[in-house]
Amino acid sequence: DFVAGIQAVAGALGVIIPPSITMIMYGVCSSTSIGKLFMAGIVPGIVLALFLMVTIAYQAKKRKISQMNTFTFKELGAAFLDAIPALLVPTIILGGIYGGIFTPTEAGAVAATYGFLAGAFWYKEINLQNIGNIMGGAIVNTVLVMIVVGASGAFSWLLTSAGVSSLLGKAISAIAGNKYIFLLVANLIFIFIGMFIESVAGILIVTPILLPIATSLGVDPVHFGIIMVVNLALGLTTPPVGENQYIAAAIAEIPFEEEVKASIPFLIAGFAALAVITYVEPLSLWLPGILGM
Asked: Where are the alpha helices (DSSP H) in 31-163?
């Protein structure tokens, strides 16, 4: 349960540290630079990782979990060498984008091609026997996401056409008199949405409503995007939906309730990190700033 709880919450890091599909969706929806968002997510991702590391150390000591294996640099070196082809995927994506070689969309095609070649010829895990299942799974997952995106886009249009978006925006503006109160209200909205709605759908529905208010109060769109992405990433581990929790419980073969209980300390650490990321704006804007983006 301890390991499953860690994995469920730490899975949020995959959404925050680039490359991230969630960031791409926010960038497209808000007309914000995807390159800036990618760079802006690195430091907040490290902050969340540090909060989780401290919590892991505390929980391990509290549970009296002892070291099971002796650490050796030889094993570390061997593992690192074996992982180099996989680690090159984000390097190719980010290097290609910032080097002006290809666009974020083209980067996806390049990464998929490289991943296929590495899986087939280096790791030898892709072959003629399983390629059909791999392609079928990719098609099913893509279709599911596109259905969600299509439905959420229609729902967003309906809210706007009915005037709900405008009324909600005015209500939030009336409650949030300054950007600090607004960010608190926005976090609560994001957390609630993340508990029930898939992250891509959440971005498509909420961004058109809250982003204009955020910018009018002086919140940088890149910083606001990182706040939204971190919230929705943590939403993947927050019941009642919490896809990460169900997956972690299934892999660990333990009851869902037991896994959720074990993840609570890590969820608390995650939301504490979110508070720091929300109100310490330079954490998101420092790296894009020094890179002159």
From this structure: 34-63, 73-98, 104-117, 131-161
**Which alpha helices (DSSP H) does 162-255 contain, by range?**
164-175, 179-196, 199-216, 221-235, 243-252
To which residue do tokens 């983006």 refer?
A: 293
Q: How far apart are CA 52 and CA 266, in angstroms?
A: 6
Residue 234: CB partners within 8 Å, gap ≥ 6?
9, 12, 191, 194, 267, 270, 271, 274
pLDDT digits (tens, 9 = 90+) for 67-96: 777 888 999 999 999 999 988 888 888 888
Q: What is the pTM of this model?
A: 0.78
Tell me the CA distances in angstroms from 53 to 40, 44, 50, 238, 259, one per residue in order.
21, 14, 5, 19, 19
User: What is the rounded distance in angstroms from the CA atom of residue 255 to the CA atom of residue 248?
Assistant: 10
Under 8 Å between Cβ of 26 and 207? yes
> Is the distance from CB of 43 to CB of 230 less than 8 angstroms?
no
- Strand, helix or coil for residue 65: coil
Beta carbons within 10 angstroms of residue 84's beta carbon: 11
- Taking residue 207's Cβ as centre, other Cβ atoms within 10 Å add up to 22
Closest CA to 5 of 272, 195, 255: 255
pLDDT of residue 208: 83
- Tokens representing 116? 């296929």
d(CA 28, CA 210): 15
Averaged over 259-270, what is the pLDDT? 93
- Report d(CA 210, CA 1) in Å as an integer: 37
- CA 191/CA 168 separation, integer angstroms: 17
3-class DSSP state of 219? coil
